[in-house]
Design a protein that fits this description.
The protein has a 3-stranded antiparallel beta sheet with strand order 1-3-2, with no helix packed on it. The protein is mainly alpha-helical. It has 7 helices and 3 strands.
Length: about 210
């Protein structure tokens, strides 16, 4: 089927009032509720969308395989990377045709046969996720960059402060260097950090040297 034929099929499909209503519901849950970045981490949402697309693709590409149609609700990866990304993820799964069953433990399952109306709901949800994935990933990349900048900012400030302290320490060391005696260095009078007797001795030697020259 060509791209034009595919678009025509989707356009005709959405003419069905029931399908249009479900499609609008899926779009609202995803774009207005789940993609509220004030409440939900874009990084977590990016991972969530990737996992959901993988789940849906497995079903759509392998319609006869039962192993892709069921997942434990308390599965650690599924809970962490899908359900916990936003509370409305469960609403999205329900709108896509999934439902829960309780048999010893809770499972999410997709039981619709290929070609049914519920199957089309899964396809619609897949398309909505694909259209949103780029925006969510861009937001996640910017968010990760901001976090990294906030993390490295204080570290850079500390490094700059330490550098300034070391430079100041070296500067004070050079400034307050002790008096060095000798015939060629007698004029290097000690700074105010030297003891009074050292200053007096230096001045006496300087005066004596000056008188001998006359």
């Amino acid at each position: 089927m060509s791209k034009g034929e595919t678009e025509l099929t989707w356009a005709a499909l959405k003419e069905d009032p029931e399908v249009k209503e479900r499609s609008d519901k899926i779009g609202k849950i995803l774009h207005s509720q789940i993609m509220d970045f004030r409440l939900h981490s874009p990084v977590k949402l990016a991972i969530c969308v990737s996992r959901l697309l993988q789940m849906f693709d497995n079903i759509l590409q392998h319609p006869g395989s039962a192993k892709f149609r069921k997942v434990r609700a308390n599965n650690a990866n599924f809970k962490k990377h899908v359900l916990d990304a936003a509370k409305q993820i469960e609403d999205l799964l329900l709108a896509a045709g999934w439902h829960t069953v309780e048999n010893m433990e809770k499972h999410w399952v997709f039981e619709a046969a290929q070609g049914t109306l519920t199957w089309k709901y899964l396809q619609i949800t897949q398309r909505e996720l694909q259209s949103a994935q780029g925006l969510i990933q861009d937001k996640a990349n910017r968010h990760a960059k901001e976090l990294e900048e906030r993390k490295t900012g204080p570290q850079q400030q500390r490094e700059l402060l330490l550098k300034q302290l070391e430079e100041d320490k070296a500067s004070r060391k050079d400034k307050f260097r002790p008096l060095v005696s000798g015939p060629h260095n007698i004029g290097n009078v000690a700074t105010c950090t030297q003891k009074p007797e050292v200053l007096a001795s230096a001045e006496a030697r300087l005066q004596s040297s000056s008188e001998s020259q006359h």
